Amino acid sequence: MNDATFYAHYKSLRLRRHPHGILEIVMSGEGANKSNLATADEQMHRELADIWRDVDRDPETRVAVIRGEGKGFSAGGDLHLVEQMATHFDVRARVWREARDLVYNVINCGKPIVSAMHGPAVGAGLVAGLLADISIAAKSARIIDGHTRLGVAAGDHAAIVWPLLCGMAKAKYYLMLCEPVSGEEAERIGLVSLAVDDNDLLPKAFEVATKLANGSQTAIRWTKYALNNWLRMAGPSFDTSLALEFMGFSGPDVHEGVRSLRERRAPDFPGGDPF
Description:
This protein is of the alpha/beta class. It contains 14 helices and nine strands. Strands 1-2-3-4-6-9 form a six-stranded mixed beta sheet, with helices on both faces. β1 and β2 form a beta hairpin. The radius of gyration is 18 Å and the shape is globular. About 45% of the residues are buried.
């Protein structure tokens, strides 16, 4: 097929075809933060939401492997974009739609997805990393859902999949406190499928992808579809969490969250009960 039809317009994601119908998706580390970590700026956030529709309808792809490059899997959201969301309703509404589509497009993509997470795994990239059908983490990876640290509710993928993967008690602990989870601990509590030594991460990811690509495509895809009905049943919880997250972007705490991140200090959120 002509890749120009499907993938030429992607700029923040680099795509490479491998044998057996494996498509490698690399989140570029050349984002706005210049830290050699993939940052979910406006373009990457949009592309992460859209790519799974194209993977689903690409007849040459049987399996997708998503990974980061450089120092880690993915950084958090671009703080400039966060400030725009906090200030402008139209930006907030657009990013809400993209965040919704990212979750549902990963879930509804008919092709199996394998994630290979190393270093920091945060933000929109983590959505795809943990919703992937087979999630593989380096033992030294640091998985962090940083929403409450920013001053907004843990939306994105958190409410739809963390309780199902690792149980409600662990989900509340890590999501409410923004505590980091190592790849090794993530495997122990069931948050990821596998944890491997850092040097084995990509070889293992492609080994798994090759097995999936060489298996019965109808059997594997229909198994994915049936199992993902557990996630579809959690759709109302996800929709609520995403609405509450984005309501938080219109409140005061997110401004202090952004300031504290820029100044590399602990946030000092205002006290009092807002309800």
